[in-house]
């Protein structure tokens, strides 16, 4: 990896870590979900970094792809709260997540999640089979009496690309795929007291660019220009809800989805409505092991 690229990954990781530590004081039962998310996103911008994806805030059985609408007035409440944050410096991404238990009931689940992540991070090196990562994560979580979410994975990262190529399993799978030197990956175990599977809901507030195609309306062209500037990094519908009339925005986004210009990232929830936790770090695979950019 070129030194300049490495430095950008390290910088984005450092910013992400700082934002995470700063954000923990925001997670209170009386805090409005929208305020929390927008405050964190504002902090990333203050650091002169890019928001790599809309801040995700997932409550209780909601597992991923959850960010509020522009007019959301709900509060966090006494719940298990997952915060997933993405920071980019010139498109070089750091992806980090943590969970806060405001109920006081799920300390053991969070311990299982942290241990699974820690144990996975310890073994990372070139030529390691991804199946071994999944095995360590699964065995650790099950030793605490919980289940990993089998159909959510970690992922490879590239410049401006959050999910690039390789998926990193959270369970033991039959695969000969291996890690290679200079690969950038996010390790993110999800733990649940449910059945260990997530399903897609109908709710969608997050989208990402697939390809550029001509569009007719001025409003749609302007929106596409803003989306294109992010390359393939996901965006939130609410980012445009204050400048484009809601009915128009819905029509434009749906037209873009229908034409395969953008894709939807629907919210996931645990199939049996089990509580879900999540912890995540971003890692660069090195000649001798790995560097955790977000630690």
Give descriptors for this structure.
about 300 residues, alpha+beta, Creatine Amidinohydrolase, Arc Repressor Mutant, subunit A, 2 domains, five-stranded antiparallel sheet, three-stranded antiparallel sheet, 6 helices
How would you sum up this structure, described in words?
The protein is α+β, with helices and mostly antiparallel strands and about 300 residues long. It folds into 2 domains: about 5-200 and about 275-290, Creatine Amidinohydrolase, CATH 3.90.230.10; about 205-265, Winged helix-like DNA-binding domain superfamily/Winged helix DNA-binding domain (Arc Repressor Mutant, subunit A), CATH 1.10.10.10. It is about 30% helix and about 25% strand. The chain contains 6 helices and 17 strands. The strands form 5 sheets. A 5-stranded antiparallel beta sheet has the order 7-6-8-16-17. It has a 3-stranded antiparallel beta sheet with strand order 1-3-4, covered by helices on one side.
Radius of gyration: 19 Å
- Which architecture name of the largest domain does CATH use? Alpha-Beta Complex
Structural class: alpha+beta
Total E-strand runs: 17
CATH topology of the largest domain: Creatine Amidinohydrolase
How would you concisely characterize the structure shown here?
This protein has 295 residues and is of the alpha+beta class. The protein has helices at 3-23, 33-46, 107-123, 130-143, 218-229, 246-258; strands at residues 50-59, 62-64, 80-89, 92-101, 147-148, 154-157, 167-168, 184-187, 190-192, 198-200, 206-209, 235-236, 262-265, 268-270, 276-278, 281-285, 290-292.
